[in-house]
Each structure stands twice: as C-alpha cells, then as structure tokens.
Automatic annotation (TrEMBL):
<keyword id="KW-1133">Transmembrane helix</keyword>
<keyword id="KW-0472">Membrane</keyword>
<feature type="transmembrane region" description="Helical">
    <location>
        <begin position="212"/>
        <end position="231"/>
    </location>
</feature>
<dbReference type="InterPro" id="IPR036259">
    <property type="entry name" value="MFS_trans_sf"/>
</dbReference>
<dbReference type="Pfam" id="PF07690">
    <property type="entry name" value="MFS_1"/>
</dbReference>
<feature type="domain" description="Major facilitator superfamily (MFS) profile">
    <location>
        <begin position="7"/>
        <end position="390"/>
    </location>
</feature>
<dbReference type="InterPro" id="IPR011701">
    <property type="entry name" value="MFS"/>
</dbReference>
<feature type="transmembrane region" description="Helical">
    <location>
        <begin position="279"/>
        <end position="299"/>
    </location>
</feature>
<dbReference type="GO" id="GO:0022857">
    <property type="term" value="F:transmembrane transporter activity"/>
</dbReference>
<feature type="transmembrane region" description="Helical">
    <location>
        <begin position="166"/>
        <end position="184"/>
    </location>
</feature>
<feature type="transmembrane region" description="Helical">
    <location>
        <begin position="39"/>
        <end position="60"/>
    </location>
</feature>
<feature type="transmembrane region" description="Helical">
    <location>
        <begin position="139"/>
        <end position="160"/>
    </location>
</feature>
<feature type="transmembrane region" description="Helical">
    <location>
        <begin position="364"/>
        <end position="385"/>
    </location>
</feature>
<protein>
    <submittedName>
        <fullName>Fucose permease</fullName>
    </submittedName>
</protein>
<dbReference type="GO" id="GO:0016020">
    <property type="term" value="C:membrane"/>
</dbReference>
<feature type="transmembrane region" description="Helical">
    <location>
        <begin position="305"/>
        <end position="325"/>
    </location>
</feature>
<feature type="transmembrane region" description="Helical">
    <location>
        <begin position="337"/>
        <end position="358"/>
    </location>
</feature>
Amino acid sequence: MHIAFRRRRALFMFFLLTGLAVASWVTRTPAIRDQLGVSLAEMGLILFSISIGAMSGILSSGKLVQRWGTRSVIRSGMLLLLAGLGILAIGLSSAVALIAAFGLMLFGLGIGVGEIALNVEGAEVERITQRPALAMLHAGFSLGTFLGGLVGIGLASIAFPVSWHIALTALLGLPVTLWALQAIPQGVGVETRKAPDERETNSTSFRPWQDYQLLCIGLIVLGMALAEGAATDWIPILMVDEHQFSQATGSMVYTGFAGMMALGRFSGHYFLTRFSRTAVVRASALLGVIGISTVIFAADPYLAAAAVLFWGLGTALGFPLAISAAGDTGPHPTARVSVVATAGYIAFLAGPPLLGFIGEHFSLRQALLVVLLFMGLAVFLARAVSPRPDRLSY
C-alpha cells in the first residue's frame, strides 16, 4: 500500500506540474498575442502548433507505452513539455512567432506523449488498490492550473515579462520531474512479444469501433475534453474581447474556472460514494450546459464571468470518470483506456484552435455553440459509464 501511495503521489505531482505549465501561458495569452503582434486567426494558428505536436504524441503514445512502459514515456513527455516552454520563452523574448510556435509544438508533443501514459499508470493504480484514483489525479491538473492562474494574475498585474514567467516555470519543473520519476515502476503497460499467429488472434479480438458502450464513453470524453480545452485556451481572450474585461480580470476569470475544476475533482470521491457514476456524469454535464450556454447568451459580462464557474464545475469529473469507465466496462482495459484517452486529448488540444478559426469568421461566443452541443450530448449518453456488475464499481 505504501508503494501504491508513492505512485499516486508521484502521478499527482505530474498532473499538477502539467496544469501549472498550461496555466503559465494560458493566463498570459493576451500578453503573448500582443507581444508577438498577431491577429486572432494567427493566434489560432500558433495554438494549432500545440495540436500538431499533441496529436503526434497522442497517436504514438500507446505504442510507446507497449514498447517501453509508462515510466519511460512519462519521463520523455515531461522533458519535452519543459523544453517546449523554454523555447517558447525564447520566441517571446525575441518576438518571433515561428520560434514560439515551435516551442508550443514541443510542449504539445510532451503533453500528448506523457498524458496517455499517466492515465494508463493511473488506471493501473486503480486496478491494484480497487479504489478510485483518476478523479483525484486529474484534480492535480486542475489544482496546477488554479495555482498557475493565481501566479499569472499576479505577474500580469505587475507587467512581469511573460518570457521570464514561462522560462522560470520550465526551470522549476525540472527537479520536480526528476524527483517524481523515482516512484514510478518500470514495466507497466509493456506488452510481451507474441508469435505471429497469436498476435493476429489478439489484434482482431479488440475492435473499439464495434463496442457501442466504448463509443458512447468516447463521445462523453470528447465533449468534456473539448469543453475543458476551449476554456483553457480561450477564456482569457473571450473575457477581454467579448466582455471587455482587462487582461488581469480575464486571467482571474480563467483562474476561477480552474479553481472550480479543482474543487469538483477533489470532491469527486465524496459524490461517487453516495451516487452512481452515471448520476455524477449526468449532473456534471448539466452544470456544464448551464454554464456554457450562459457564457454564450448572457449580455451582462459579470453574469458571463460567474457562469464560467459552472462551466468549470461541470467539466471537472466527466473526463476522469469516463477514463475509469473505459478501463472497467470490458476486456482489454489498457487498450480501452488508451483509445478513450486518445480521443479526449485530441479534442482537448485540436478542438480549441478550430474554435479560433470559427471565432475569426463569426465570434468566439458563437464558436462555443459547438462545445455546447457536445456537452449536451454527454447528458444523454451518461448511462454508458455504468460499470459492469463483475468489475470494479464505484
């Protein structure tokens, strides 16, 4: 049990560091846009560089885990993430958008490579301990974004150079990464090599597109991840451009979103011990629908800012609970977790830049109608996360 605790603590720190790194540049996106001198569409292209890196990492991460194990993949992902932040800082200090975009591409690659491995490792900890873990681990990400948001607000309010802010985040993250890696065991997720005929039999036994329940879980993850990603990338700019808040206030609103996500995930165990997983996911999606729809349609900027809190609370538990559901609702749990997590992270990272292109031609508020549609779909598909009777139930 002590070993399992050390693993959970290390995984929590990795999620925390990732959230802190994301918030470090998200809260400064208005300043980054101004320093690089780019338009909304050009900012969308810069954000799309994250998606290019992230999708490359996501699509390769499952195979990398099977070949090298979660520990090696987590280490590579975190080091790429920190290196990307360092290059982003160089691009900002020199005001060269291409360098900044390359840094964000490496940043996205690190997230894509590392996050799938972190979820596979977290699902393995759940299997060993027979207790929910992923909600609390994802709470680490939300706590990181909340703390990073507070730092971003403070530094933005004193006009601290954004390039130094990003660089210091990368430097501080390195010793944390090296320390936490010590608690992650070797070999988790590695698949032994099989004979050709056995590989053929095994490869045809798992067809995710033929598993209706898994497809529904994937759609829930897609909606929740898109809602979280849209908030992460666009809330500060949305509050500044659409609701006429200052940059510091826009960062504060995003920090409120992150704080509510952290609150929701830290309280997840309380609700899961009292209500079914289906009820928790459905209630979460309903809160998300209320929050996002209010942000879109409210004329009062303060009402829209308050609605962001419901947006954060509504998206808090859907992603980790759907990942847990993927692992305990059928055979091949590692493959199922990898498939669903991949869908989620693609939505989280690739969706927001596409919203930016829609926002350039219409508005960011109108672009959020896409997010609202998928969040509404999650309300109706929530039953898919119900565990099978012979498997872990919480």
